[in-house]
Design a protein that fits this description.
alpha/beta, Aspartate Aminotransferase, domain 1, Aspartate Aminotransferase, domain 2, 2 domains, seven-stranded mixed beta sheet, three-stranded antiparallel beta sheet, globular, binds pyridoxal-5'-phosphate, Aminotrans_V_dom, EC 2.8.1.7, pyridoxal phosphate binding, PyrdxlP-dep_Trfase_major
């Protein structure tokens, strides 16, 4: 009766025990301010240096290119506003997509009010941008291309290396929001031609409220948080030492076990995709069939409403999410589902199930057992479904 299955790893992940253990001493034993010169301070400072090394190594970057922030949203804001403000003498044009996370989208909309021009590239039915459209969008006054690595709703992975190449050829900065990709695939910032990259700890089994921005050496960027001289005078504020230590531990674990992690969640994802497809009619898999995050399942379930699904699933202990209007906090369904061309009705019935390290085969079996009767029951209340069935 008390079974609980968590399938919302793209929203946040539980911290690993090793991560928690690594963090603990920095709350009350080695609690010094890293800026203090006595031993307490030096212990904290040393822990941050070590964390920076680990994170830099995981990306094939150097430690002085890693800047700690309070999470993915701050990193996105810093990258987009920081580049916009520092390079406005060159131009005020930014290129992004209409499927970005709101931390990028709303920042771009804010900059538009300040006189910047933003091109929002559209995506195809799988959520992929067009390289030709990107090339055509570049202008002499373009200063930044910001395109996410992998989408948080439908899991689609963009052609990052090609985008990096185009940015380089045109002398335009390239920022990518890699919050969903980090820890779920190999990322080498040099090989991919990335100038700035946002990552967040709580999406890869680390603590909430901690993230980082990778800033390639030589990139011209303004700072957002003014105050003390932390983070090489580019991001003020006493460092979140336990958070940073936990973040690095999570990254280290992710880096060491990447192959196994990908294998594990890919097989669970595919089991879920196949299992549901076999038992439920009128399903549409959103996102790309192969260029997709290893843990992401996003189905539109026709003739049902996302919020009713979530509530019914919650009653049997299953936690997942939906792109329906009620859950997106507005009258419209998710902008990502609209961008891939779904109708309002189909988007309202979307369900995102994201698996992770602690998901088991039994969890997947449980969902494949519980979801189909819930869908059937909800569909019985849909006049549209009755009509479709009657027509068969
Ligand atoms: C979660 C998420 C963010 C925001 O990160 P926070 O650390 O929660 O601020 C940004 N972009 C993407 C793609 C995300 O999934």
């Amino acid at each position: 009766m008390n079974k609980r299955v968590y399938l919302d790893y793209s929203a946040t992940t539980p911290m690993k025990q090793e991560v928690l253990d690594a963090m603990m001493p920095y709350f009350n034993v080695s609690f010094g301010n890293p800026s203090s010169i006595y031993t307490y301070g030096r212990e904290s400072k040393g822990a941050i240096d070590k964390a920076r090394d680990i994170i830099a190594k995981s990306l094939n970057s150097s430690p002085d290119e890693i800047f700690f922030t309070a999470g993915g949203s701050e990193s996105d804001n810093w990258a987009v506003k920081g580049i916009a403000y520092a390079n406005r003498s060159k131009g005020k044009h930014i290129i992004t997509t209409n499927v970005e996370h709101h931390a990028v989208l709303h920042t771009c909309e804010y900059l538009e009010k300040e006189g910047y021009e933003v091109t929002y590239l559209s995506v195809d039915e799988y959520g992929l941008i067009s390289i030709d459209q990107l090339k055509a969008a570049i202008r002499p006054d373009t200063i930044l291309i910001t395109i996410m690595f992998a989408n948080n709703e439908i899991g689609t992975i963009q052609p990052i290396k090609e985008i990096g190449q185009i940015a380089r050829n045109n002398n335009v900065y390239f920022h990518t929001d890699a919050v969903q990709a980090y820890g779920n695939m190999k990322i080498d910032v040099n090989e991919l031609g990335i100038d700035l990259m946002s990552v967040s700890a709580h999406k890869l089994y680390g603590p909430k409220g901690t993230g980082a921005l990778y800033i390639k050496k030589g990139v011209k960027i303004h700072q957002l948080i003014h105050g003390g001289g932390q983070e090489k005078r580019r991001r003020a504020g006493t460092e979140n030492v336990p958070g940073i230590v936990g973040f690095a531990k999570a990254v280290q674990l992710a880096h060491e076990n990447l192959e196994d992690h990908i294998k594990h969640i890919t097989s669970l994802r595919d089991k879920l995709i196949t299992g549901l497809k076999e038992k439920i009619q009128y399903l549409k898999l959103n996102g790309h069939p192969t260029k997709r995050l290893p843990g992401n399942v996003n189905y539109s379930i026709e003739f049902v409403e996302g919020e009713s699904l979530l509530l019914s699933l919650d009653m049997v202990g299953i936690a997942c999410s939906s792109g329906s209007a009620c859950t997106s906090g507005s009258l419209d369904p998710s902008h990502v589902l609209m961008a891939i061309g779904l109708t309002h009705e189909v988007a309202h019935g979307s369900l995102r199930l994201t698996v992770g390290d602690f998901t088991s085969e039994e969890d997947i079996d449980y969902v494949i057992e519980k979801l189909p009767p819930i869908v059937e029951k909800l569909r019985q209340m849909s006049p549209l479904y009755e009509k479709v069935k009657g027509g068969n």
